[in-house]
Queue: 4 jobs
Job 1
Amino acid sequence: MVLVGLVGGFLWYASDYYPAQDVALAVLAQDGDSITVQDNLTILSTQAPSDTALIFYPGAKVEATAYLPLLDQIRQLGVTCILVDMPFRMAIFAPNAAQGVMEQFPDIQHWYLAGHSMGGAMASQFAADHPDQVEGLILLGAYLYGDYPPADTLTIYGSLNQSVEDQLDYTENVVEIPGGNHAQFGNYGPQKGDPPASITAAEHLVFAGPKNLRP
């Protein structure tokens, strides 16, 4: 009975998540053939063939689709973006998901890994464990977890996201978004415990997208 209660409690916890909102859903609806879904992967293709790709791990309990506005900007830089829909919407249950993605796309020569919040922590762990496979790491509202070089890492966080700033023990390639918070890297609305941002979501993505993300 105790086990049943624990399982039931976890399933209830996991089912209470942040769904993608209208801006993200519009990206999915408008981009037609340039965005495809294969099992748990959403692939944002570039206009011209590319040998560079970014694998993205979503934040905990956030619908993966919420990150499409950000990834849509990145793919316009000529980088194929592959969004991973995690088990129970938590990257902690599939930290090595990037390995399977890489095996599915043998034509990609240059791999980058990115993640938001818990997704960033798990992406960092994978990069630390597989440094020869990952050319660079991008952490959004997250910090290095594992022994991966800061020189190959771009860390971006909102100035109102104090919990991330307090954990940073490195300064190389760190970008603070003035007035940014934790949630606006994705389009999923306010997040519990996260202060309201003093900039718009569009302004936030300028820092998280083309302004700084150039693998």
Note: DSSP finds seven helices and eight strands in the chain.
Job 2
Amino acid sequence: MYSDPLKTTENWVGANVCAYTGVFCASALDDPQLEVVAGIDINHADIAGYLPTELGMLSDIAVFHINTNRFCGIIPKSFARLTLLHELDVSNNRFVGSFPEVVLQIPNLKYLDLRFNDFEGKLPPELFNKELDALFLNNNRFTSTIPDTLGNSPISVLVVANNHLEGCIPNSIGKMVNNLNEAIFSHNKFAGCLPPEIGYLSNVTVFDVSSNTLSGPLSKTFKGLEKVEELNIAHNMLTGFVPESLCKLPTWAILRFPTTTSTARIKNVCHLLGRTHVLMTQATAYQIGLSRSQQNNVKLW
């Protein structure tokens, strides 16, 4: 540890570890008479340093939260011994290197948060075979494509925004119908068409693919997004027509569509269907077909 300006670890001395700031203890699962370290939470402590290998000795720990500090280096390989770890949050630090594959060896991990670091390179296919519930990878420097194993994941929340990911969103995403609630792919380099299998995601509430280079039309299958509350497809290179079925989604949904700057009149069928939560954004050619009489009543906002 190089720096602890808030003196969070000032009392980390002596044998009474359970009294340390940010350390939480509980009875051991295999021996209720024994008190063990069950969690570490030193979020927002502004601590600078490396994670010591000795952390792998905390075999009973279930929660490890160190977000918003200045830890650097890599995640120790000794973390593979943390067999009871459920939540790992190392977000908003200065970790570097390729995806920390040691996390793939943590058998009971459910929540993984790596956002706002300097991880780079490929995402391992094995990542989406894990029994994760939430995965946050945004604001790193990951590259290449999302593996086809995406569809194997039971994840309910997936955020990969603000990386350098490219290629297509895998068709296998349609297999995530039972669990996926939020998916955010924005601000990457995804290209190609949006797979029609996205329309199978009947439990999704947020779906954001904005600010990529996606092209082609929207599939009519998108009407299957029955629970969507926010759908953002703005700032891409989509063409064709927005299916009227999208404007018949639940009335509380916010739909962010791109508009065309090449026509004098924006043909906004959603507005004429009474949708007041449709946000039109300045982007490339994407039109919604209406008759000439309907066009005269269009409002742009």
Note: The helical segments are 269-272, 292-295.
Job 3
Amino acid sequence: MAISSREVEHFLTRNHDAVLSTIRMNGATQLSAVTVGFYKGGAIFTTTKSRAKFINLNRTPECSLLISNSNWRPYLVLEGKAHIFSADTLDPKTLKNILRAAYRSAAGK
């Protein structure tokens, strides 16, 4: 069932626990627990370049994200392509602002 960006925002401002599904080099699924927030119509989370999720998404951006709370109900699944914000592609000030927004949103602020 498709939902609007407004409904996604409403859900993500209240639910921050998520499981990210990425694709390994061998085609197998790799799952990661992440904390998410709402950012510009979708979900945002942070990671480091050494993590499997970053390496997988950098190679193959297709992913799924199951978002819920600690009770696992209700939940929302987002599927699509990840957009990576990094120091390699953004100026430091822009990246700092995006990271600040990500941390604040994931904290429910």
Note: The chain has one domain: 5-106.
Job 4
Amino acid sequence: MYEKILVLFLVLHYTRSALIELSCSDINTFISGQNAVRQLVAEGKVEGLPPAAEMNSVVWDEELAAKAEKWAASYPKSVDPDQTIPSHRFSVSQSISVFLSNDLNYQMDFEKLQIMWFNEHENYTYGPFTQETISPSHPPVGDFVQMIWSDSVYLGCAMSENIEDELKKIYIVCEYGPSANVLGQLPYKAGKASNKLLCATDENRCENPSAKKCYE
């Protein structure tokens, strides 16, 4: 009798976990979304923020995407304390978002995700990044500040899913390099609106900012 109960429990307790490969459409949505927000700041069109005198664009980075995949595969509850990458080109910073749904067929909308990050600007006052800014008592601003951190010109993201019984959890991890949200530093240089994004990598990458596989 006890064996039958145990077997029944194992059958009913369903779990599935997987790392979900991002499509070129997904990757392009991340890149275009980040650069669209930076363009708004460059034009001085984000309410409450001064225009950017200089604002760099972002491009996709395979090494950062690989790091994001590794962390997403762990179904994380917090950011990765390791801010290094194998090449040691620069330190990195990270954004994590977790979504829960009872709809097991729910598909992540990356445009809405970035709108959610952008909306954090309502809680943000331009100035040097401080410890108070990342305090649990402070309204969230970290994801937005990373989006507009001009020196962070490389981006890599990943997604994983965990389904347990009737609950689906989606984990989104994005890595920025060089690191954003550096204490005591400003996200960008304010001044007369530049109205354009600068290329801080090489021109070919800025003209083709997506993943390599998207150009093959």
Note: Residues 14-215 form a domain with the Pathogenesis-related Protein p14a fold (CATH 3.40.33.10).
